[in-house]
Amino acid sequence: MSLLHALILGIVQGFTEFLPVSSSGHLALVPWLFGWDDFGGDQSLENAFDVALHLGTLVGVIAYLRDDIRRYGVALLSSAAGRPHDMSEARVGGLLLVTAVPTGLIGVLVLSSTADLGDRTWLVAVCLIGFGLLLGAADRRPGDRDTDSLRVRDALVLGLAQGLAFQPGVSRSGAALTAARVLGLERVSAARLVFLMSVPVIAGAGLLSAFDVRVPSDWLPAFAVGTLTAAVGGWFAVHGMLRLLSYRGVGVFVVYRVLVGLAVLSVLAVR
Asked: Which residues pair with 145 in a beta bridge?
């Protein structure tokens, strides 16, 4: 893989992981569109690069939300140890872990039943369009709840929605944000919660995959470039998304998803 390809894919992963447009969908579409075959059919190497990109975005979101992560984590651990703590923060920390349970179960089911979800380009396009329209509809709903009002059943719903993103084109952040808005959460609170939800999921998936990752020495520069650009892109994506939602909705992402999906279907129709 050239460093340029690694740079481009790192940027794509970094921004699309946290914007509601599907990182896995874009990582499937970009090489397809440009005819790249960097991995030469080596699925294990491709999976290793995907893990590296996701760990980069994990670094980015942790760097941006480190105060929230520390606050909820300390409160949760203090609660478990019987030490004085903020009950509300400990409760939110516990609910964030609950959201990872259905997501993880769906992930295990999907990975055990299919080898490659990204090979159906038409389905990626359809999911971009369909789930984009669902996001737009959900975002029109009024919302005045904050994270302190969440219950266990709400956390399970959010985790189930997040789990749908194992199909490229759905978008983890988009599906979870759709569910959060349907549950009545205010836009910025919903987005911040969705970003926090990603931490245990990405970290858990990365740790599980790390045992099988083998990176040839000549690939190390490409992996380093991809991981670094994904981390930087992820930080800016989280920052930009929270800023945007503080004064407007997600309409621009809905339009983008629909246009990209229609463009991909058009290309497939004439090929």
From this structure: 185
**179 with 78: CB under 8 angstroms?**
no
Domain borders along the chain are 3-270
State the Cα–Cα distance between residues 92 and 98, nearest whole angstrom: 10
Which phi and psi (to 5°) does residue 114 adopt?
Answer: -150, 150
Q: Distance between CA 195 and CA 236 in Å, rounded?
A: 13
Q: How far apart are CA 29 and CA 119, in angstroms?
A: 10
Dist. CA 32–CA 22, nearest whole Å: 15
Structure tokens at 188: 């910025």
* 172-187 average pLDDT score: 94
**Which of helix, strand or coil describes residue 37?**
coil
Report how far apart, in Å, the C-alpha atoms of 92 and of each of 96, 112, 136, 216 are.
6, 31, 27, 41
Which one-letter amino acid corresponds to residue 192?
A: R
pLDDT over threshold 70, residue 212: no
